[in-house]
Structures are given as structure tokens and as C-alpha cells.
Amino acid sequence: MQTDIDPRSLIGRKAFDRNGAKIGTVDEVYLDDATGVPEWAAVRTGLFGRDAFVPLEPSEVVDDALRVPFERSLIKDAPDFGVGRHLSPEQELQLYHHYGLDVALPSDFQRPRPQDTP
Known about the structure:
Layout: H1 7-10, E1 14-16, E2 22-32, E3 38-45, E4 50-55, E5 60-62, E6 65-67, H2 72-76, H3 89-98, E7 112-114
Parallel strand pairs: 1-6
Antiparallel strand pairs: 1-2, 2-3, 2-7, 3-4, 5-6
């Protein structure tokens, strides 16, 4: 993802899948505790307001929207861990595996936390 984007500016943006289908709206952004780098976005999907976690890398902001390079069905089937609290290392690994992303966690790995909103 573009590193010059303020993570708070992602909140409220529409999110679309790789085919341009609307997924929902970015509800929260999760930062890595150690680096402060935005790592995950919780996207509110569907009528019942379930949040699906999507990886911000390799997603990108295009035309004021978050473009997630995965199919809508895969995103909607992502594990549901709730929002507003840290993701455990195990939960984060489940998400990486769900999206087929490789991750090598350092020994001092710290959990992502929700971005504080003003």
C-alpha cells in the first residue's frame, strides 16, 4: 500500500475487490505495534455489518477507494475475529493463510492494534 497515506484517512472509504465489486466501507485500520505501519483494514460488509479483515499490503488506494486484490467471496469468508482489539499472532497467521500470503514473523513480533481515532 502507499506509505504516504494517513491510516485515519482510510476510515470511511469504500472498498472494492479485484473485479471492482463493492465489498463495503473501511471501519478500522490496524497498525503494527512495533513499526506503526498500517497492516490490516476491517471492512464493514453486507446488511448485517460484519467486518472482514483485509491485508493492506498488497492493497492500494485508487480514485479515493481501497482496492483489495482478492475476490469478494474470499474476503467475505475471512475469519471473523471482531474489531476494536488486538489480533493475536495466531489470528493474524490465520488471516495471512486465508489470503494465501506468505509471512515470516520476527521473533519480536507484536500484534497489530486498532488505529486510535480522534
